[in-house]
Amino acid sequence: MNAAANFAFCNRQVITHRVRDAFSRVFERPSRNLGMAVVYDGAHNTAKFEERVVDGESTTRCVHRKGATPSFGPGHPELPPKYQKLGQPVLVPEDMGRYSYICLGTARAMAGTWGSSCRGAGRVRSRHAARRMLEGVNLRTRLAELGIYVRAQHPGLLAEEASEAYKDVAIVVDVLDGANIARKVCRMRPIGVVKG
Description:
Helix content is about 30%, strand content about 25%. It is of the alpha+beta class. The chain has a three-stranded antiparallel sheet with strand order 4-5-8. It has one domain (about 55-195). Strand 1 and strand 2 (about 55-65) form a beta hairpin.
């Protein structure tokens, strides 16, 4: 698991470097002048040993987050200084055609979910069912009409991530916020999609 997590971290760093390099070439400016700082780097799947209270006693447990993300509250010792007062950034992405959210972890999440939150809305259709349902639909054109630039290896791959394949993340984030697991900060809209 550690080797896989290290590989994923390294891979994301390489992707970030190459994206910055591409923007630098297109805009003919050094990447450091483009304002492309990494706000937060979170892995898709993690397992790590954390201190937790079980039956009133502090104990070390391996917390496996698959399809989940940490949602540590303000003051948690594992948070970097810039997030100590705010709480852990919780990124809750949606499909490629709607919106995503940035939230912050809470003390309630530490008590109720071992400092965990969902990291997406979740599917309502499998990839195969979405491709079948959207056969013949020009998703590239539909996204372009929304002002979303698309780059895909094959047009059929876009159907796998279409809005029709996912729950509405706004509803999911309202539940997180209402349960005080993650506090809603802002909603973002997509401007570009890369699907390989």
